[in-house]
């Protein structure tokens, strides 16, 4: 890591801020020394479950010394039904560290299906967040033509940027990037006219390299109906990364990941803002692809990690991909963690050599071929087997690991198990029936290693309004998947 460069940069920011700090931390390494998490916000879904209730934001107590540890202590229902709350972000984060007038106050909740975007006030009472503002989809569509909002990131300018996956009819060609001002008014599109990608999904920017890279899921008209392999062949899903100038918004390069990079979802740069390296998790082919800046300023890519498909019996296909649906990088850029939603395991890789990740930890917390299910995995010799997944506090683990979140110090990994209600129903119908859950994985951040914490289990199947699906997680003070340094 370019430590000397970082120190100069961060000292300059503090001086320019007249020794006053904005939100977040001066550097990723400083963030690792931040306070231990005591609360975590979880987006919880009733959309698609048939229960006729609005989605909600749950506040979970994660302080092991608290009497309500591992319990939902507050629920904030949204004012409408049918949202499908998805990936959340903040109104400001460490990218605004040099601005003492900025505050990490509002959690931004895009709704993938309805198109609404909620601003949630977490400052008045962090244990009981309240609704501040609703951005209505009609306003977004009228001013930008965008719909199906997905990922929200704060910008150093104080604006909020949200990737949108299509137009109001679900066509992928209509996607792009929405800009909101600091009070959540629609400003317009971020990208230059004529520079919208064919598909959209996630994005991450690295200002020191004047670059933003976005990934590609699929057309909303396809994925909202469930996964159909024929739709991949028909061109309704993506396999590209899009490289933009930052903050200019000009699409300057498209990386075709080919058949080894189908459905590239989460995209992350290394946290060190001087590094021009990142990864994207390709769900269908279950590869982690590393992207990097070439000496001539162009960007290249290569497969860095491959999760081999497993031969199976009693399933919809003869081979089952791991289906990497989420991954993250520790704040010191030493470890990468990924979740295989179908195989059911979470993996830890050492990436101190970014081109040669080394597997250092693995734990199974569910999956299609766990013991008790009908699906069997087949070994090379023709024998069959199933994975032994332990119960936690007497609960059989349902579904597979989907969203993950790491503590600032890198020692605790949290995992939920809902991907998207329609896909949950298709691949894990038990999830929709019995609800999701949240686990905590203890991490050996020195030598490597993962183990389920037997003291922690949040059962969203026991919610007052019936079983709900648990998706993304955020700490009040920011985390390694929402904060970007400049």
TrEMBL record:
Annotated SUPFAM superfamilies: 3-carboxy-cis,cis-mucoante lactonizing enzyme (SSF75011)
Alphabetically ordered keywords of this record: Selenium
Family matches, as Pfam families: SBP56
Annotated GO MF terms: selenium binding
Source organism superkingdom: Eukaryota
InterPro entries per UniProt: Se-bd
Family, as annotated: Belongs to the selenium-binding protein family.
Record-given protein name: Methanethiol oxidase
Species annotation: Anisodus tanguticus
Organism placement in taxonomy: Eukaryota, Viridiplantae, Streptophyta, Embryophyta, Tracheophyta
